[in-house]
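User: structure tokens for this one?
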Amino acid sequence: MLNNKVEEILNAQINKEFYSAYLYIAMSAYFDEHGLKGFANWTKVQAKEEMEHGLTLFDYIIERDGNINLKPIEAPARDFHNPLQVFEMILSHEEYVTESIECVANMSENECDRATREFINKYISEQVEEESQVRDIIKMIKMFGEDTSVLYHIDKELGKRK
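Assistant:
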């Protein structure tokens, strides 16, 4: 059974994961509206991953005989200007999520909950990978600037993500 502190932080993480999905859907809409179907695909796939993370946390709490306490999900800002700015926002958001997951890990350690500490390790590893992917996309965009022909090729590449 989960103690109250671990249950509370896991429920908060569910909210952050669902918010992340909502944010990526907003970004996907922005890209679709600007004809960048590959960028839209990449962010939509990311939204699905974030939903899966939230649901996995949900299932974990239930498995540990905990209680689910869903909170409202804030509407994401839609103040997007260009692909570089959006991916810089993505990186900042992923760093925030990484910090949050590390807090879950620390809380589970402090509360001597080894099962949760072990469970959360896969999220820590995945965050390293996600941040790296986003940094690589930012580097590509920065290297070539807003050259539309290069942006077209990046868009095609991001469209391959499944």
